[in-house]
Amino acid sequence: MLWVDKYRPKTLDKVLVHKEVAENLKKLVTEQDCPHLLFYGPSGSGKKTLIMALLRQMFGPSSDKVKVENKTWKVEAGTRTLDIELTTLLSTHHVEMNPADAGFQDRYVVQEIIKEMAKNRPLDAKGKKGFKVLVLNEVDRLSREAQHSLRRTMEKYSSSCRLILCCNSSSKVSEAVRSRCLNVRISAPTEDEMVRVLEFIGKKEGLQLPPGFAARIAEKSNRSLRRAILLFETCRVQQYPFTNNQAIPPMDWEEYVSEIASDIMKEQSPKRLFQVRGKLYELLTNCIPPEIILKRLLYELLKKLDSELKHEVSYWAAYYEHRMRLGQKAIFHLEAFVAKFMSIYKGFLISTFG
Amino acid sequence: MKGRGKRNATIVISSSEDDDDDKDFSLKSDLSYSKPASVPPTNPNKRAKKASLSKSGPRPRKGPLTNDFDEIRRFCEEFDDGIRGFKVSTGNGMSRELWADKYKPCSLEELAVHKKKVEEVKVLFEERLTASKETLCKNVLLFVGPAGVGKSATVYAIASHFGARISEWNTPTPTIWQEHLYNSSSGLRYTSKLEEFESFVERIRKYGFISSTVGPRSRVVLLIDDLPVVNGKVSYGRLHRCLHLLVQSVCVPTVILMTDYVKADSTDNSMRYWEDLHVSLQEAGACKVSFNPITVNSLKKTLSRICKEEECELSAEQIELLAKASGGDIRHAITSLQYFCLKPHQLPSLCLSDGSTPSLRERTDGLTDLYIEPSLSFGRDDTLSLFHALGKFLHNKRESEPSMVLDRDTTNLKEKFVRLPLKMDSPESILRQAHSQSRPIADFLHENVLDFVNDEAIDDAWVVASYLCDSDVLLASVNGRMARNFEAENVVRSAAASVAVRGVLFGNSHLAPTRWHAIRRPKLWQVEQSLWHYKCQMVSQQRDANNGLNLYDLSVVATEIKPTLERIGNRGASEDFEAHEASPEHMADDLDGLILDDDKSEMTSEDEIEDW
Amino acid sequence: METYSKVTRFFFICNYISRIIEPLASRCAKFRFKPLTEDIMSNRILYICQEEGLSLDSDALATLSSISQGDLRRAITYLQSAARLFGSSISSRDLISVSGVIPEDVVQALYSACRSGNFDLADKEVKNVIAEGYPVSQMLSQLFDLVVEADDMSDEQKARICKKLGEADKCLVDGADEYLQLLDVASKTMQALCNLPQELSYES
């Protein structure tokens, strides 16, 4: 088991980061009636951890017994019956899933699941009809129609089903859904907090950390706690005992993007563009999301540029990322960005150096 | 004879009155705009029109409306005429037999298939027919190719050459709905064609050929033409298994014919299924022979031969036209020949638009207007014309000097926007003839355009890329709100194709020095397929591995969890995550292997997420 | 509407009258609801606090009015959420954290970074905003308020910045990435503030 999962705090008391939020959540749950919740914040900041801990707080240890199920939902969509298959985690009190994985049919999935949950309401300790919790991940990836239907279904079935939504950026969640939930912002942990967590894990694993080592890892992980712990584990495997200036390698796809960036800086021509395209295909085939590729590429390029070009390049990055959302084939837009960059850079080189 | 009355004068006719040969009808030359629906089914007066097209010079144009209308009307008239033509022919005592059947090749020499291919197949047959019972020879041959290229003709011809008998699976006729209802009410169970095929294969495997007419020394070849139609994974799986068993265990030389349909878009899974089927049957021991479309020369030879036999007068040019229009399909060519031998003078002696459009200054005789290009109504569309069209767009041939200024008020374009005039028809008409969909066109252009851009001109590459982006955005918008408004959808699609094509034509202003480039199929499609498989794989692995701990988002898995696991080398984590391809640097080698392997494993996995 | 006018009356509720088509709007009598004034809202809020036994501190009421922007439902929801999370004694800070409004100092930090003309500094601030998890659409609207009320900018500069804010907002609604859009806005703001020539516009 990865350390990320092994040392994940199971209860709200044991949470190391976001103690305040945990306290508030505890207060929230002591009363019987819990509202719909929307947890938002950057990746790796601890939203999932808090949600799990919250469920534990609400339902006790039975919420830990989770079963994985591959459910197929048969939904009537107009004139046809669709077969949608999704992975869900179930316990007696909650259901967790990723509706955005259903692609175009996410709207049906959302409606059907909530309806189904409403049908089987469990009895709570007092004998009254309790409610189940539905945890939905990646709500910001849901289509607009799915979010509309979510809103309607939320209202209709709110007595039998509580929703806990989890997303990275709340701007992409529609206003209507946001206003019906209690929004809980989970900010990324500060570097100090991350260092504390790493030291805690280090102690538990019985490792000796040289001074400043944890701080270096925290710095390299871009304020994502999950990334920090994963990097930590990687370093442990690569070399122990740790040395002071041990290399902390980035992820392999990140190195690859860095290679692409240097390729672009070295030569700007259609031939080079074609080669870059091939490399981008490899990244895409590995399921790296295209917007992440674009952002990382921008980061690598900005590192090597003079300030006057940075404005223009960041404009085009934003432009093409936006178009990529609107379009179907990410590679077209990624390639257009690279082509524009090459064009700008070549022009710059010519005007500067003749 | 055609003793029909005079036509009502409700049709627009062009003002060519030079048809003296017409004894039956007189033209009325009034210009009235009426709907095409009001064309009376009686008489067309086409002969005159066709004559005018082929003989006279450019007709005065009445404006686009008239011309389109003419085209429609002409088409209706042609159709009527053709139908009547058949009737006339029976009246004249001509045989009702289809020439395609009448002139079926009986011997190896008559085959229009390439001689080398015929030799190759002959050798393969020989091996199998003369093999003794002891050597477990691989008995199955797989003939693959487009329709009408001579697959079954070859089998028959070669079998007769060796004196072997052909035993064909009797393709059961499809059950029509009424019949089914009748049967079910009388208690007969419905057996699908697939089931019948499966039971047939079982019988063959177990019992071989039991036929009283087959003597001990005569050799039999089993021919399976026309595989049952399958839809969906399950029935496809059954067919696959069935054929697999057949390949491995049949003791009689067998030939399976599979006609492939070229479909350009990657979202069509059936193409993938068929290709997989070919590959897996080959691995099971079948020997695959690909039949290519028949060459134009071969077609011409056959057509000329038939013409002579039937005493039909067609010029060499017309025969060439027919040969070209049939797209490598000889059955089609012969049938078209038969159709046109009824009324040979109807055949317009036009050339297909292969780029030789007259410029505005010169207009040679016999060539049509730019606007009226009657696509041959018997012609065939296939992706060959897509490649044709793509070739034109990519090569981007232009005149060597700017065109004359025709209008008085041309807008003055900025220097950087000016381009030389195109040396081809308007891109939109080429697109129309290519009959292709916008999505494949954009993808093909994207794949290939960089080969044609000058290596110094990265700005051009950007312009081209940005237009392709715009085209992609337009195509994506079709899936959204407009999904129910078909007309709007069509407009958007054609707009997208136009944007892509014109963007490529405009952007590529400094052409690369001309070399011959093969136009590649978009690698993008392959990437999308392997991405899809990979995603499914990751999801199922994650599910098994995590076992309820946490449901990670797929992007997190791809960007963080998996790379870490690979680095760590799997201590404690599930074994499933391991044994994946190496890091992306080595992806290139595995990419091709990836598709086929994944295809196979995913086909039988039950946990696969449904296609969307 | 016309077919059943004898048996049915229609009551339409909408946010923007201009989005209703003419034929429909012309057949209706229109009642316009203005945003509630601060007094009315405060009264109602105080009444609720009394009933629920909450205590607000001095500027909490004013904060509540400003962050709810005349929407009483939103104000009551914030009140309830704050009460849930923070108990019966609610401070202004609690209300802000519940409402998702970005603290003023964060907005100011970004604005000053743009003023300085240092791209890397602005980049750092943008990354900080994203890391804190603040919704960028909210950031844009707060920046907008800041820009409109600023005294030390020319109208032309304000116009340029606001134009960019509008475009970025549209892109966000389309689902574009927050970091890239905010970075682009920061970059444009920087250019406007430091009076970099408009000719650098590369939209052609």
Automatic annotation (TrEMBL), chain A:
According to the entry, every stretch annotated as the AAA+ ATPase domain falls at 33-192
Q: Which Gene3D superfamilies match?
A: 1.10.8.60, 1.20.272.10, P-loop containing nucleotide triphosphate hydrolases (3.40.50.300)
User: What's an example GO BP annotation here?
Assistant: DNA strand elongation involved in DNA replication
User: Does RNA-binding appear among the keywords?
Assistant: no
**Recorded GO terms, molecular function?**
DNA binding; DNA clamp loader activity
Q: Which CDD domains match?
A: AAA
Sorted alphabetically, the keyword list is: DNA replication, Nucleus
Asked whether the UniProt record includes Oxidoreductase among its keywords, one would answer no
Q: Where in the cell is it found?
A: Nucleus
- State the source organism's domain of life: Eukaryota
A Pfam family reported for this protein in Swiss-Prot or TrEMBL: RFC_C
Which is a Gene Ontology cellular component entry for this protein? DNA replication factor C complex
* InterPro entries, per the entry: AAA+_ATPase, DNA_pol3_clamp-load_cplx_C, DNA_Rep/Repair_Clamp_Loader, P-loop_NTPase
Per UniProt, subunit arrangement is: Heterotetramer of subunits RFC2, RFC3, RFC4 and RFC5 that can form a complex with RFC1.
Query: Which PANTHER family does this UniProt record tie to the protein?
Result: REPLICATION FACTOR C / DNA POLYMERASE III GAMMA-TAU SUBUNIT, REPLICATION FACTOR C SUBUNIT 3
As for family, the record states:
Belongs to the activator 1 small subunits family.
Stated role? May be involved in DNA replication and thus regulate cell proliferation.
The name of this protein is: AAA+ ATPase domain-containing protein
Automatic annotation (TrEMBL), chain B:
Every AAA+ ATPase domain range = 137-285
Subunit text: Heterotetramer of subunits RFC2, RFC3, RFC4 and RFC5 that can form a complex with RFC1.
What is this protein's name? AAA+ ATPase domain-containing protein
Return the Basic and acidic residues bias intervals: 572-589
Q: Where is this region: Disordered?
A: 1-67, 572-612
Keywords in UniProt for this one?
Answer: ATP-binding, Cell cycle, DNA damage, Nucleotide-binding, Nucleus
State one Pfam family annotation: Rad17
What does UniProt give as GO cellular component? Answer: nucleus
The keyword S-adenosyl-L-methionine belongs to this UniProt entry's keyword annotation: no
Q: Which GO terms describe its biological process?
A: DNA damage checkpoint signaling; DNA repair; mitotic DNA replication checkpoint signaling; regulation of defense response; regulation of DNA repair
**Basic residues composition bias: residue spans:** 46-62
The cellular location(s) given in this protein's UniProt record come to: Nucleus
Q: Which family does it belong to?
A: Belongs to the rad17/RAD24 family.
Offer an example of a GO molecular function term for this protein: DNA clamp loader activity
Q: Which domain of life is it from?
A: Eukaryota
UniProtKB/TrEMBL annotation, chain C:
Q: Describe the family membership recorded for this protein in Swiss-Prot or TrEMBL.
A: Belongs to the activator 1 small subunits family.
N-terminal signal peptide: none
Q: Which organism is it from?
A: Coffea canephora (Robusta coffee)
Taken from the record, one Pfam family name reads: RCF1-5-like_lid
Q: Which GO terms describe its biological process?
A: DNA repair; DNA-templated DNA replication
A single Gene Ontology MF term assigned here is: DNA clamp loader activity
InterPro entries, sorted: DNA_pol3_clamp-load_cplx_C (IPR008921), DNA_Rep/Repair_Clamp_Loader (IPR050238), P-loop_NTPase (IPR027417), Rep_factorC_C (IPR013748), RFC_lid (IPR047854)
* Keywords noted in UniProt: ATP-binding, DNA replication, Nucleotide-binding, Nucleus
Q: What is this protein called?
A: Replication factor C C-terminal domain-containing protein
Q: Where in the cell is it found?
A: Nucleus
Top-level taxon of origin: Eukaryota
CDD domains reported for this sequence: HLD_clamp_RFC (cd18140)
Q: Can you give the residue ranges of the Replication factor C C-terminal domain? A: 102-187
Which Gene Ontology cellular component terms are annotated? DNA replication factor C complex; nucleus
